[in-house]
Amino acid sequence: xxxxxxxxxxxxxxxxxxxxxxxxxxxxxxxxxxxxxxxxxxxxxxxxxxxxxxxxxxxxxxxxxxxxxxxxxxxxxxxxxxxxxxxxxxxxxxxxxxxxxxxxxxxxxx
Length: 110
What we know:
Structural class: mainly alpha
Distance between the termini: 47 Å
Helix content: 55-70%
Largest sheet: none
Number of helices: 5
Number of domains: 1
Radius of gyration: 16 Å
Order of helices and strands: HHHHH
Shape: globular
């Protein structure tokens, strides 16, 4: 099968985004004690309350444009960059972005 340049660009673009975007997952639940401890390693001021705010932001904003991302499908080191980009798209303040990041990283610790 032979593709014209515009069709080829669409096909390659779709394959790129399908392969790079983390798969969708059910929304993560509340963070337990192990998650709070993990969050405090990244964000020393993290608390149960701030992690719950991050969870609520995640629930309110991530599913608005795409499915909830599987927080385990992306390496932890990539989440800060993702949250900067997606936080800008969602119009999160820097504090909201940091709380969401702390929640995502805490959610990975089970």
